[in-house]
Structures are given as structure tokens and as C-alpha cells.
Amino acid sequence: MKELFRKYKSVLRFLLLFLGSYIVLSLIYGGYLKLSKVDSNTSDFITQLVAEQSSAVLNSLGYNAEVIANETTPSMELWVEGIHVGQIIEGCNAISIIILFVAFIIAFSASFKKTLVFICAGAILIYGVNLYRIAVLAIALYQYPEYQEVLHTVVFPGIIYSLVFVLWVLWVRTLKPKKVVITSLNENKELQNE
């Protein structure tokens, strides 16, 4: 059993760090959501901010957009050119995706400074891309409302998850390319010496 743990030490370390940080960050975020709701019909501050910033992006792209707090559910109504195109709910603010991103980076952490810089840069990028994702989705729903289902459930979630995947790949590639090369060179030397 001890040998099994030693053999898979790096895998177990990754799983413990990933799950541990994911659970801790999710609990903190859940606590924030619980504390931020004045009543059951009020969106949290971050969701409201994302809705307002997405509206600002739409306005900067030449569309007349506005967001209005929904009075019956914790969401923000998004209107483009006077047409209701959707609701921005807590799940649209990208915080859960940022938590997933951060947990993976922590699980593959490098030096504290390098990890912290990558987490901050990645979280800002994900947040920013999410704003544009919502704006472009709103434009698509305004112009092509018949494609609402595929746009909302496939295309636009695919964009944000693809970004997170690319960031993960970049992070892993920046961590150990030298070790892999050195290990491969050492193995080749050992094979030649035999």
C-alpha cells in the first residue's frame, strides 16, 4: 500500500489540491451569495455588475441596451433595442468558472508569485471574455431568436470553457517543459550507457 501511495503521489497531490481548493473556494462563494442576498428576489452584487458591464459593452458596440432588475426572481433582465433577449442570473457571472480555473492552477502550482500572477491574469481574462460573450450572445439572440437554444446551451458555453481549457494547457506547458526534456535526455543517456 505504501508503495502504491509513493507511486501515485503526484496524482494524489493533484487531486487533493484540486478538490480541496475547489471545495474551499466554492464554500466561500456560497457564503458570499448567502450574505449578499437582501431578499430572494435580489441578484448578488457581482451578477448585477456583470449585467451592467455587459450592457455597457453592448452600448459601446452601437446597440441600445439596458438591464433592469427582475422583481420576481434574482436576475437582471437584458434588453437590446427595446426587445427582451434574456436574463442574467448568478450562473452567468463566470465566478464558478473562475473557481474551477483557480482550483486547477493551484493543483499544478509553481512558485507562489508565478501562480498568483497567472491566477489573477487568467481570472481577469475569463471575466472580460465573459462580458463580451454575454454581449455577443445578446446580439445573436436579438438578431436570431430562433437559434436561442443552441446559442445559449452549446455555442456560448463552449466559448468560455474552451478559454479555460486553453489557459490550463498554457499553464501546464509553462511549468515543466525543461524537466521533461531533461528527464528524456537522462533516460537516453542511461540507455546508451547500458
Low-confidence stretches: none
Distance between the termini: 32 Å
> How many domains make up the 3D coordinates?
1
- Total helix count? 7
User: Can you write the helix and strand succession as a string?
Assistant: HHHEEEHHHH
Biggest sheet details: 3 strands, antiparallel
DSSP helix fraction? over 70%
Radius of gyration: 22 Å
Main location: membrane
Organism: Halomarinibacterium sedimenti
InterPro entries: Exo/Archaeosortase_dom (IPR026392), Exosortase (IPR019127), Exosortase-related_prot_XrtF (IPR026323)
Keywords: Cell membrane, Hydrolase, Membrane, Protease, Transmembrane, Transmembrane helix
SSE blueprint and pairings:
Layout: H1 2-7, H2 9-36, H3 45-60, E1 65-69, E2 76-80, E3 83-88, H4 95-107, H5 112-143, H6 148-175, H7 177-193
Antiparallel strand pairs: 1-2, 2-3
Gist of the model:
It is found in: Cell membrane. It is a multi-pass membrane protein. The chain is mainly alpha-helical.
Account of the 3D structure:
A 3-stranded antiparallel sheet has the order 1-2-3, with helices on one face. The protein has 194 residues and is mainly α. It is built from 7 helices and 3 strands, in the order αααβββαααα. It has one domain. The radius of gyration is 22 Å and the shape is elongated. α2 packs antiparallel against α4 and α4 runs parallel beside α6.
Can you give keywords for this protein?
194 residues; 3 strands; 72% helix; elongated; mainly alpha; 3-stranded antiparallel beta sheet
